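Field: sequence (string)
Field: structure_tokens (string)

Example rows 1 and 2, in order.
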Amino acid sequence: MIDNRTEYQRMYDVERRLWWYQSLHGRVLRQIQRQFGPDNHPIRILDAACGTGGLLSYLREQGYPQLTGFDYSRHAIDFSQERGLDVSFGDLRRVDDFRPGEHYDVITCNDALYFLTDAEIVNALTSFRKRLLPGGLLLVNIHAFEAFAGTHDVAVGSSRRFQHADFERYAGQAGLSIQRHTYWPFALSVPILAVRQWQQYQLRRGRVNRQEVDSDVSYPGDLINGLLLGIMKLEETALSSAPFGSSLFLVMK
């Protein structure tokens, strides 16, 4: 995906509206507010592998001014800078090289660590830990459960998915502890699983050209989008931690 400008354009076009991004960004905000309070806005926030800057843009609208991001893709950086964000080049394999000496209250890293090997993930998490200020948070979202792999994974270059046990191991090796975690979207897991299993079947049968597949990043219309976002809000209210879903959200210290 790093060299696929079309995918970044899709993300840029819908990232502030699509139910999935809205739900993820809301989760990030609530964890920040849980740790620092609703009015503690001078905190320093880094979004590692920030994509087109949707999360940073959202946090800026929520009153957080000290925002920084990095990404490996030139396309992602260009789109982020179009939003007027402080985003520049950075590599998850060499986190220590990004603005050495700067430290942060919050570091987020969403749907990017799957590009790395196990050892590289541990190194990235270790570097994040070293860059956190006292009382700081590391927030990670990642693709979960191989059963949910489908054409979206092919389009974005994801070669594997993870479970909580994987990150328990990574976190321990990096000197971090997982404070909270949940799989999501639990309430939509059955229809998502059905779609992804059908996609896997078509991929195995060669009925889909792997070079031409698109990601799931598309806007379904206001009615459906609003319905799905409402389901996500109910899910987060009712379940502090869900046992199953296509994504895994973790809060680490």
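Row 2 begins here:
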Amino acid sequence: MITLVKQETYKLLHKKSTPAVSIALLIIMTVFGVLSKLYPKYWSAKGMFTTMYTGGSWVVLFLIAACSSIIAMEFQYGTIKELLYRKYYRGEILVSKWITMLIYSIYFYALVFVYSLILKVVLYNGKFNLTDTYANNQSIIETQFMNLIGQFLSVWLVLSLVLLLANIFKSTAAAISIGIIGYFA
């Protein structure tokens, strides 16, 4: 099983989209951070920080695409047959893909969390403290962390559906489309 997870992680890290998505996410967060600095009337500094400069919302879309492609590409390129001819069972292959996506989602949320802290220091160092009370008698950092946990759990409800649909449809486009429609619905 560990060998399968290593192989899946290797394939994921060597896809061209993996670093591109990470860079795009950081650029999007930076744009929203700068916009909230320039137009505080529309985007409050504390509100943007607690929502991680919209990074969490974008992570969902990126993870839906990654989850659907991690399985559908095996069927598209015919490599699923090679995996099944070896000593691995179909369930082991699917669990290894699930574990790989779990690691990938933890990476994304850690990246978003750390980069939002960096943006806070760079853009709003003296404007507010992380220990200031924000909502429900929680500090700003507690509110952000609760948002992060809530997003992580809700995204995994959607990703479970996307992984299932990618197995059924065996098409990346269909699984991505249904996953995004399901997320917005």
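free_text_note (row 2): The two ends are 35 Å apart (CA to CA).
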